[in-house]
Amino acid sequence: MPVWGAFLRGINLGKRRMKMAELKSCLEAAGFSDVKTILASGNVRLVADGPEAQLKAKLEKAIAEQFGFEVGVVLRSEEQLAKMLSENPFGALDPAADLTRHVLLFDAPLPDGIALESRPRDTEILRIDAREIYIASYLQANGRYTEHVEEVLKPLYARLGKTTLDTMRNWNTIEKILQ
After folding, report:
1. pLDDT of 155-176, one tens digit each?
2. Residue 141 CB neighbour total at 10 angstroms
3. CATH of domain 88-171
4. Which of 30, 36, 38, 99 could lock 62 by a disulfide, CB 3.0 to 4.6 Å apart?
5. Helical H runs in the chain?
6. How far apart are the first and last CA of the chain?
7. Which residues sit opposite 166 in a β-bridge?
8. Beta pairing class for 33-38 and 73-77
9. Once rounded to an integer, what is the mean pLDDT over residues 94-99?
């Protein structure tokens, strides 16, 4: 059976709280197997058979029924995650640089011709793929890393509107999801 990475959008913020043990039980009760949560921010490795759209709908329905609020889910297959990791879009970065590595995951392909302006040594767009954007965020004077990410992504969201679901993850999470 196929392995999937499920990334839940916007949980454990405000009143949208869930314990990972309860999420794991919820997904097991919904028929998913080998469920493993990673961190407390809605990252799940699971085994399930079926097309991505069907699995996404099943996950979102189970979560809404269990927790009483809707949660968007972005899925990646084991093969997609392995490809992301093997291509290592962060490999050319200075290993001594004080930065964080992020990937913005989308549930649908981005429109052709998306271009975003990087801010060198601040918020750098390293690569834009069909459903991912890879971002390096450098430590700023105020002590934050992702201070200007929203500003850099603003033209993208203006173009997309509310037509697609996205969620951002630290690259360390992506590295852990298949372990």
Report:
1. 999 888 877 889 999 999 999 9
2. 6
3. 3.30.70
4. 30
5. 20-29, 52-67, 78-87, 149-160, 171-177
6. 16
7. 106
8. unpaired
9. 95
